[in-house]
């Protein structure tokens, strides 16, 4: 039995109660991650998946799934805020807000809640042995038969496909990945997108890693990039990331192959943003805000509870989130304007507009300067998942569920036009980055 079995099972019991379903999901997460600590990632993501309905755990009435997951991660499992953001697939800002809102709803504080959650799992009963004669052999045989049937149908379809090429329906061509090669030296390539995946530690990778896809569909492994952050310049010719080996923020210029080491970094540092023209990089280090354009200079105005949120349209100022609102600060530290707090996705790079995307219909609502509703012209078989990033003052990228030419679309905020972004990513995807994302 895995060393992590009891801890993962205790966490599952807080998310889904002392139910067979919660135990099953804990065991599934451990199997999927080969009994490693990464099982927590699978467990939390399955709990927050819109395709899974977990039973009521019997505590935290009124909490959303995200609020409950954040509270369990922070105050029972002992994860940091950044680690919790990674586990839940949310930003640190969203995690912080969910945790604060959850504690207010429960009328308690973190210390008291931690004691309560520990007490709820201390007497968790041992797993009962399976009853004689119910070892699941019959179900296993049925599953094997079903798998064999599906494989047979797939094989027959593959044989028939060449015969139907001249029919009414065009043949379907499966997309495949090219060989994965290291990103090394100068190359005349433009990056189309990048994705982060999670994998067991191997001789090639150290667990999670980033892959960039070029316009010519090359797959390039960014060997030295940590999982914490990676950004692509708007022209797709530069990468910024945290270096594993040097513990520094670096900028990789693809045409020249030059690597510029611009600042020391530690595990708590995050937030890398290229300016709209791609000439400057804004980043945080040790609770200080810097801009690099060949030389590094500090920008005043970042507090200990502040989060860098990106650039204002035109690159004349930076957006800083202080939990109570968003400020636009120019490079001298002067506040140009501030906005009230909002739980909606945003802000748009004008600093004054937020959007809220509903998952039950292909519409989004704009708040702030551009208040109103718009329909997104997505395929009828597609439903929105979440907003991935803004790519300009007038467009944002969303990920979707369902079937269509892509799982990612660039949406025009004025017309609702949806441009499919070709992106092929593996199932163990964590994040996707497109050029110019803020």
UniProtKB/TrEMBL annotation:
InterPro entries: 6-blade_b-propeller_TolB-like (IPR011042), WD40 (IPR011659). It comes from the Bacteria. Signal peptide: none annotated. The keyword Transmembrane helix applies. Gene3D superfamilies: TolB, C-terminal domain (2.120.10.30). The keyword Transmembrane helix applies. The chain crosses the membrane at residues 139-161. Keywords: Membrane, Transmembrane, Transmembrane helix. This is PD40 domain-containing protein.
């Amino acid at each position: 039995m895995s060393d992590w079995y009891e801890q993962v099972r205790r966490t599952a019991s807080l998310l889904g109660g002392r139910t067979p379903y919660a135990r099953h999901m804990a065991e599934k997460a451990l199997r999927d991650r080969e009994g490693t600590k990464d099982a927590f990632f699978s467990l939390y993501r399955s709990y927050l998946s819109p395709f899974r309905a977990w039973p009521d755990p019997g505590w935290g009435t009124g909490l959303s799934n995200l609020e409950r997951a954040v509270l369990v991660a922070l105050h029972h499992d002992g994860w940091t805020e950044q680690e919790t953001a990674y586990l839940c697939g949310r930003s640190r800002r969203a995690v912080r807000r969910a945790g604060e809102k959850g504690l207010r709803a429960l009328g308690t504080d973190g210390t008291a809640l931690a004691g309560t959650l520990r007490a709820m799992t201390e007497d968790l009963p041992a797993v009962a042995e399976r009853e004689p004669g119910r070892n699941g052999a019959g179900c296993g045989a049925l599953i094997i038969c079903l798998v064999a049937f599906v494989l047979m149908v797939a094989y027959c379809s593959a044989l028939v496909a060449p015969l139907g090429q001249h029919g009414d329906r065009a043949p379907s061509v499966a997309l495949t990945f090219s060989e994965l090669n290291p990103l090394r030296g100068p190359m005349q390539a433009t990056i189309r997108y990048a994705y982060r995946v999670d994998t067991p530690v191997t001789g090639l990778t150290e667990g999670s890693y980033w892959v960039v896809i070029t316009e010519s569909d090359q797959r390039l492994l960014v060997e030295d990039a940590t999982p914490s952050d990676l950004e692509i310049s708007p022209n797709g010719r530069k990468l910024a990331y945290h270096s594993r080996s040097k513990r520094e923020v670096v900028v990789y210029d693809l045409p020249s192959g030059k690597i510029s080491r611009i600042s020391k970094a530690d595990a708590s540092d995050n937030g890398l943003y290229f300016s709209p023209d791609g000439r400057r990089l804004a980043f945080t280090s040790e609770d200080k805000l810097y801009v690099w354009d060949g030389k590094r200079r500090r920008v005043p105005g970042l507090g200990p509870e502040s989060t860098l949120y990106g650039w204002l349209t035109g690159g004349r100022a930076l957006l800083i989130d202080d939990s109570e609102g968003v400020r636009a600060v120019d490079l001298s530290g002067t506040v140009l304007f501030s906005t009230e707090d909002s739980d909606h996705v945003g802000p748009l790079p004008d600093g004054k507009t937020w959007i809220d995307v509903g998952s039950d219909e292909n519409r989004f609502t704009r708040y702030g300067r551009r208040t109103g509703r718009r329909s997104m012209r997505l395929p009828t078989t597609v439903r929105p998942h979440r907003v991935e990033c803004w790519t300009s003052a007038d467009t944002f990228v969303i990920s979707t569920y369902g079937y269509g030419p892509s799982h990612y679309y660039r949406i025009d905020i004025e017309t609702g036009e949806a441009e499919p972004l070709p992106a092929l990513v593996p199932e163990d995807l964590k994040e996707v980055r497109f050029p110019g994302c803020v």
